[in-house]
Amino acid sequence: MFYLKSRIYNKKGILSRKQRYSCKSCGYHYAVMRKKTAKPDKMKKQALHLYLAGLGFRAIGHMLGFSQVSAYRWIKKFGQPLDSVKSNGEIEVMEIDELHT
């Protein structure tokens, strides 16, 4: 990793969705690498499995350590490609397992 001694810099455009800078003292061009805060796909798939097992968004978020809104958005995003698979026909048989009231 390259460390600049000078704290004087200018913004010099955006390249590949990253802000580029130019050092005023030496003219060196660089881009600052930001910390990636995105959760790994493995965790998102685990959230989907927990949802399909019957857990709610709040419980999923609490178990995996992120917000319930994130769980909702991930699961909604996984389900969007499945809209074309839906059947518009009438439901003839339905099974309800372990129903508690």
Descriptive key words:
101 residues; alpha+beta; 3 strands; 3-stranded antiparallel sheet; elongated
Write a structural description.
With 101 residues, the protein is an alpha+beta fold. The chain has two domains: 1-34, no CATH class; 41-81. It has three helices and three strands, in the order βββααα. A three-stranded antiparallel β-sheet has the order 1-2-3, with no helix packed on it. The model has no long low-confidence stretch (mean pLDDT 80).
Low-confidence stretches: none
Provide the spatial order of strands within the biggest beta sheet.
1-2-3
SSE run: EEEHHH
Largest sheet: 3 strands, antiparallel
The number of helical elements comes to 3
How many beta-strand segments? Answer: 3
Rounded to an integer in angstroms, the radius of gyration calculated over CA atoms is 24 Å
Question: What sort of overall outline do the alpha carbons produce when their principal axes are compared?
Answer: elongated
How does the helix and strand content classify structurally? alpha+beta
The average pLDDT value, as a whole number, equals 80
Q: Multimeric state of these chains?
A: single chain
Would you spell out the secondary-structure blueprint of this structure?
Blueprint: E1 9-15, E2 18-23, E3 29-31, H1 41-52, H2 57-64, H3 68-79
Antiparallel strand pairs: 1-2, 2-3
Helix pairs in contact: 1-2, 1-3, 2-3
Give a short overview.
This protein has 101 residues and is of the alpha+beta class.
